[in-house]
Design brief:
Blueprint: H1 3-7, E1 22-23, H2 24-29, H3 37-46, H4 50-55, E2 63-64
Antiparallel strand pairs: 1-2
Length: 68
């Protein structure tokens, strides 16, 4: 496999992440009052975060301080 071919299989997206003061659930809903818990859990699973969140003392209701 050539270096160019190998590199064609990878991509990178640079982005800053922000967590707001409040519950993890609220951060995932991001001010969407119509989002369901099921949708929140599915989003967390898609981001590979669900299993980690569930290990926290209060899970999705864990309070985050300002800046996460």
């Amino acid at each position: 496999m050539t270096r160019a071919e190998l590199r064609s299989h990878f991509g990178m997206v640079l982005q800053d992440t922000w967590l707001f003061e409040g519950k993890i659930r609220d951060n995932l809903a991001y001010s969407n009052d119509r989002i369901t818990d099921k949708q929140i859990y599915e989003a967390a699973k898609a981001a590979s975060a669900d299993s980690f969140i569930r290990t926290l003392p209060d899970g999705y209701d864990m309070l985050l301080s300002q800046g996460g």
